[in-house]
Write a structure and sequence with these properties.
Elements lengths: L8 H5 L4 H13 L12 H13 L16 H16 L4 H5 L1 E4 L2 E4 L11 H4 L16 E5 L5 H9 L4 E6 L2 H13 L6 E5 L12 E6 L6 H5 L10 H4 L7 H13 E10 L4 H7 L6 E3 L8 E5 H10 L1 H4 L3
Parallel strand pairs: 3-4, 3-6, 4-5, 6-7
Antiparallel strand pairs: 1-2, 7-9, 8-9
Bound molecules: S-adenosylmethionine (SAM).
The site of S-adenosylmethionine has 24 residues, from helix 7, strand 4 and helix 10.
């Protein structure tokens, strides 16, 4: 699809109400190359989000502007955001400075990937089923925390737990710090600038280690749509085969899990690659609503047995 041309002043001058602006935006987004999947499903969700930012109206109050004329400042802001989305391919979440996950608001900007993990489906019910009763879960890790969104969801789900959240990127951790504070979790969530779980080795062991690591192979990254390349590359890519961080994580988790503990990792398209890399390791694929089932759960005893027998696969870089 070729990019549409920029709207002319004559075209935009004709737009009056919020509803007219939204219909115009939907049409422009539809006729463009923009890709979805960074926290929004389609053009409707994106244009409503831009309208919310332009008018200052919360989503549920947006109908208030559907039939009224936009004020000049609202119109100018909406059209400027829309142009940046369509012609500069800036993700909507960066344009508005926030993203929502699990009903919670998180600050985001170019320092972090836009939150969109399958873990939002799995943290409430599926993962706790593999653990002791929620109030007995004392230590949880979120490896590769980015904006800190999953660390916050974990802290809310396991109210007695201390959460260690790691990331290699200091700029990402600066955003995570803001989100941890916004959600009142500075006492329970500790942020660590470290490679995978290196800074935690030798410390207390975990009931649960969870990670949404970078998992795209280098070759796939080159073919990603432009807006995905606006996210930090090290949020997405992990070496030639996508497994670099996961390899290290499996080895470290083997050491850092309690005997009853579990490791849960979102792996994207690497399901087959995981089985090839660790053929003896039992892997349970947790079902997700879209049927992709790309989150794997592994138990401590299985990790120990499989990685001890297969030193090559478990070796860190
Ligand atoms: C896919 S993002 C996930 C962010 C967040 N957990 C989420 O679900 O939105 C991966 C994160 O891993 C971080 N990262 C990349 N390599 C890492 C490594 N070796 N050790 C720790 N963090 C790493 C990136 O900086 C990025 O913030």
């Amino acid at each position: 699809m070729s990019a549409p041309s920029r709207p002319t002043p004559a075209q935009t001058a004709r737009l009056r109400t919020g509803g007219e602006h939204l219909r115009f935006a939907n049409k422009l987004l539809k006729s463009s190359d923009v890709a979805y999947g960074q926290g929004f499903l389609d053009e409707q969700e994106e244009s409503l989000t831009l309208m919310s930012a332009a008018t200052g109206l919360a989503w549920e109050k947006l109908p208030q502007c559907f039939e009224r004329a936009l004020k000049p400042a609202e119109k100018a802001k909406f059209l400027a955001l829309l142009e940046r989305r369509v012609f500069e391919r800036v993700p909507t979440a960066y344009l508005v400075g926030e993203a929502w996950l699990g009903g919670l608001r998180f600050r985001v900007d170019e320092r972090v990937i836009v939150p969109r993990s399958y873990f939002v489906e799995l943290i409430p019910e599926a993962i706790p089923r593999w653990l002791p009763p929620v109030e007995q879960v004392k230590r949880v890790a979120d490896v590769c925390t980015g904006s800190g969104c999953l660390a916050v969801l974990l802290a809310k789900r396991f109210p007695q737990a201390k959460v260690d959240a790691t990331d290699l990127s200091a700029p990402a951790l600066a955003v995570a710090k803001l989100n941890v504070a916004d959600h009142g979790e500075t006492k329970r969530i500790k942020l660590h600038e470290t490679d995978t779980m290196t800074a935690l080795l030798g410390g207390p062991k975990f009931d649960l280690i969870l990670s949404n690591p970078p998992y795209e192979p280098e070759g796939i990254y080159r073919r990603l749509p432009a807006e995905f390349k606006k996210e930090p590359k090290n949020s997405l890519v992990s070496g030639k085969d996508g497994l670099d961080v996961i390899r290290k994580l499996l080895a470290q988790a083997t050491e850092l899990l309690q005997p009853h503990g579990v490791l849960v990792i979102e792996v994207g398209g690497l399901r087959d690659a995981m089985h090839q890399a660790w053929p003896k390791l039992p892997m349970l694929w947790l079902p997700t609503a879209d049927g992709l089932d790309c989150v794997v759960l592994m138990q401590a005893a299985d990790l120990r047995a499989a990685l001890a027998k297969s030193p090559r696969a478990g070796r860190g870089r």
